[in-house]
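USER: My hope is that you can spare some time for a protein that puzzles me. I am handing you a single protein, as its sequence and its fold in token form. Walk me, if you will, through where the backbone shape changes along the chain. The protein I mean follows directly.
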Amino acid sequence: MVVTQARQFKNFEAYLAAPLSELPEGRFEYWNGALVPVMSESGFNAFLANCLFVALVNAGVPIALLRPHSCEVEVPGQPRTRFPDLTVLDDVHVPLIAQRERVTREMPPPRLLVEVVSPGDENSENYKRDYEDKCKQYAALGVPEYWLIDPERKRVLVGGAGGAGLSVSRVSG
């Protein structure tokens, strides 16, 4: 992976304490002291996440609890932060993230995290990141439920902290 680093921090705590004015614009994951730009989403992946956002609003989930592409989540391991494609918060999070849209490990975990899987075969870096790394991090964080939406394989996988791993649902069409 070719990586362009944006800024160094003394430690993770210094990064968490940094005001927004000291952070670069855009989305960055924290890797071993450096902020690394997050790959931009494909248009189709962003479209799917946005469709899910609208569906959840229509199903009655309060819009104040939904964060498409914008909520940073602290996770165990490397990187120390992730930006899920869609984050569903609990009411308790709303005042806690008023200054900076991020859920730290000191907070309760988000209610739901959704990832739209990037294209790639089982040997690709994208596949390993989405199917292995993120799933392990979200489960270890204690997220009650997380979804992997894989448009290439036409399936949705559902996992969570209390479950026994991912379950698969095939999507027709």
